Each structure stands twice: as C-alpha cells, then as structure tokens.
Amino acid sequence: xxxxxxxxxxxxxxxxxxxxxxxxxxxxxxxxxxxxxxxxxxxxxxxxxxxxxxxxxxxxxxxxxxxxxxxxxxxxxxxxxxxxxxxxxxxxxxxxxxxxxxxxxxxxxxxxxxxxxxxxxxxxxxxxxxxxxxxxxxxxxxxxxxxxxxxxxxxxxxxxxxxx
Amino acid sequence: xxxxxxxxxxxxxxxxxxxxxxxxxxxxxxxxxxxxxxxxxxxxxxxxxxxxxxxxxxxxxxxxxxxxxxxxxxxxxxxxxxxxxxxxxxxxxxxxxxxxxxxxxxxxxxxxxxxxxxxxxxxxxxxxxxxxxxxxxxxxxxxxxxxxxxxxxxxxxxxxxxxxxxxxxxxxxxxxxxxxxxxxxxxxxxxxxxxxxxxxxxxxxxxxxxxxxxxxxxxxxxxxxxxxxxxxxxxxxxxxxxxxxxxxxxxxxxxxxxxxxxxxxxxxxxxxxxxxxxxxxxxxxxxxxxxxxxxxxxxxxxxxxxxxxxxxxxxxxxxxxxxxxxxxxxxxxxxxxxxxxxxxxxxxxxxxxxxxxxxxxxxxxxxxxxxxxxxxxxxx
Lengths: 164, 380
Hints:
The structure holds two protein chains of two kinds. By secondary structure, chain A is an alpha+beta fold. Chain A has two domains: 9-112; 122-158, no CATH class. Chain A has four helices and four strands; from the N terminus they run ββββαααα. In chain A, strands 1-2-3-4 form a four-stranded antiparallel β-sheet. In chain A, helix 2 runs antiparallel to helix 3 (95-120). Chain A is globular. Chain B has two domains: 6-132; 158-376, Metal-dependent hydrolases (TIM Barrel, Alpha-Beta Barrel), CATH 3.20.20. Helices cover 29% and strands 24% of the residues of chain B. In chain B, helix 1 runs antiparallel to helix 2 (95-122) and helix 2 crosses helix 3 (129-138). The longest helix of chain B has 28 residues, at 95-122. Chain B is elongated and about 70 Å long. The chains are: A alpha+beta, B alpha/beta. Chains A and B meet through strand 1, helix 2, helix 3 and helix 4 of A and strand 1, helix 1, helix 2 and helix 3 of B.
C-alpha cells in the first residue's frame, strides 16, 4: 500500500511592523478539514491588542454566527505571559473557537519571538562567551531559569548561576 | 517587511490499521526542528516519539531531545493532556518542541475523526462528514482544568496570636489548589515558620479556600494562614482579598472591580509588568509614565511591586508606576515551590489576626513591601 497521506496541515504565522507603534501578526491554518485566518493588530509599547479579524474560509464544524463578536473580546488584552490563559477564558469553547484561541496564541507567540530574535542576533559566536550571554538573559528574565533543558540547572550554560 | 515568520507542516498517514504516523516540521526565524510521532488507533496513545534539531538557539538545545520520551504513553483525549505536555515536554525539554508536538497531536485527533467517519460511511453509516464530525466535536474535552476544591473540614475557628509589625507573604500557591504549584500547604507553613514569617496568604489561582478548612489548618499549625485569591482577568492576574465568590472563568477587570467593591474587598495588581522589560521587549521604550496609562490601574487598590517571579528591573518599574499613580505597593513571593516562600513579603504596622483585619490593614495603607528571605540570608 502506498503511504498516501490521510491528513495534512499547514500552519503559518507571520509578524510585521508597519509603523513604530503597530505590529500585525497573522496566523493561517489550512488542513484537510479547515481553513482559518486570524489577524491581530497590537500597539506598542504596551503590546495591547487593538484589533482582531478572523475568517472561517472552510470548516466542517457547525457555524458559529457570533464569531466576530467573540473574537473582539480579546481587544485590550496585552500580549505577554499568561495571555493564552486569558484568551482561552474569554473565548467560547466550541471546537472552532478552540482552534481560533490556539491561533491567537500563535499570533502572540510570533510577536514575542520577533523580540527574542532581535536579542539572539546579538548572541556571540564564541562558545566561551555563550554562557555569559545566556546567564545575563536569565538574570534579566528569571522565569527563563529551568524553563527548558538548555536552561536547566544541569546545563553547562547555567553553571554557577544562582536560582532566581 | 516581515520581522518574524513560523511555518509548521504536519503530515499524517496510516502505517497500518492500528498506527498513525505523524511527522511535524517547525521552521521559523530562530528554530528548525522535526518530530515523528506514532499514535495508536483508535485510542490515540503516543507510543513513540523521535525528534531532532536542524537549527537551534544555543549549543545546549540538544539536551531537550531525550525529554521528548516523557510524553510516550500520553493519551491525546485524556483530560489535562495539553497541560501534561506543557508541564513535561514544554518545561523539561523545550516549549518549541511542545508546540510542534501539540500541533501534531491536534492534527492526529482530527485525522482520527476523518478516518473513523470515513470508515462508517464506507459501512452502514452514510452521514455527511460535516454532521458526523459536528457530533464528535460536541464531545470534545475542555482543555482548561479548574482547581479541585478541597473537602471542607469542620473545626473550631481559631485566631493566630496578635503581633505588631507583622510580616506576611501575601502571594503563595499550594499544590493542593494550584496545578502549577509543587508546594504542599503543610510544607509551606513549616518553612514559613522556620524562616520567621508571621503569616502567609494563600492566593491559589481562581480558588476559594473553605474558611473552616483554613481555621483548622491555622489551629493545627499555630500559624497565621489567611485567604486570598489570584483571579485571572482580561488585564492580567489580580490578588483579591475579602471576596468569597468562586470565579472559575477569566473575567473582565472592570466587572471584577464592581463585584469586589460590593463586598468591601481589596484588589492588588499582581506582577503587572511580568516579562515586559526583558528579552528584547524592553527595547520598545515603555516608560513608567506610559505604563501608568494602562487601564488596569483604574481598577486596582494597590500594586504588587515585589514579586520573585519577575526581574529586579520589572519590580523596580512596578514601584515607579505605583508611586506615580499614588497607589500603595505590596510584596509577595508568588511561591510555587516550598523554598520560595518569603522571598518577598509585606510588613504591616497594624495588628492582623484574621481576614477582615487584613483587608482593613490593606485599606489603611500602613504597610510596605520588603525583601525578606534574601535579607536574612536564608536563600539557599
């Protein structure tokens, strides 16, 4: 039997900054069953969501007539730690809404990672300086300590670093 | 011009009648990784995971790969599956591996639905795919887990000894009522007493402790244990005191404010700038003056300006914003581990023996946030 796919999914998230005070993040999810698009607009420096648009282009799930009103509940929420819990709590719990919540999370994650990328562009090539670089990063953001295998107490990158 | 992009591709095929083979690829500006997951049909149990990096953040990222095995044996449809993946793969391995793994698992659940429905359509059932999947989705499990209520115990209420100049940790999470905490209440109290705190305030997430249970615990431990509640709102987490309503949903802060005002309670904005001055976001140019414009500050009575889960810079920033707004500042450890209790606390000049007196003291304003554990050299 040929290994024909029974299901496939593409999930693409992009972030752009059209002006100094605005960031726009979009998530497009396309799979065998579904085609969804979510676009959020965020204002800096607070990173609060100022606008959100959603589009259900294809779905086999029951229609949710008030989806645009539901999406607008997240306007005013700030992108940052804890946002997934907040968005999950504000949105409904239908199958389509759960997917949209996940996509909003992807949009927010993309915004955070766009800042992470800027920091990592400054990471030293020299391995000897790598530990110092990440030690400073953990000092500036204590929640990163022990947040993953690379930043765990057992990692050489965390050698000599006091738990926050 | 794009400043960041992430693409995830998930492909699924049936290796045989009983196994789905799921391949997920994540490529973004920072990371490149791949996972291959075998999942049983029809019970959707993860039976194997392989993962590899193609690009990574630092030289120690490969340490994440072995921890992927901790998700073997997880059932995709069991309650709390997402939280388990986040807690194991997300924290011990890498949150980006957890992200692509969850994407694979979500897709596998949908794939299994398609397979099941198509099998039924090929047999006796000829329902439209949409109707069949719609019925299945009605049974989808809620990903949010509420904290479990503790059984109330009957006991005679007692009051702790009155002490002036009390030092109370106003922000503590117990493993009994906060899924994210690893600190049993009894151990927290023992540790709090050992380091010399005068009291702790239980602020489990969206959880109301039974007053009789607390009274019994206070008597048993001969220690001041008070009730609070860390309530999730659209504007972030709020420490709420003097408010007994059991709220399990995220609510709007202005609505919470209205409710708390009716009961005469008190709201403290918990860690209001957590994650905002670090990791590149600090380059946004957020000043205390701009921060003071945030709408949340119109609805709170005080600001937590010392919290052990944020950076010193963020605590300092909170202090500046609170001072600018004329709001009092408090301190609390936000302990989720026993050894974290008392890192920060609040020193009250009033006598406090119960929750009513705590709220009165908070409203009175005669208190200050303090570094407690570090100051005593207790931190190990």
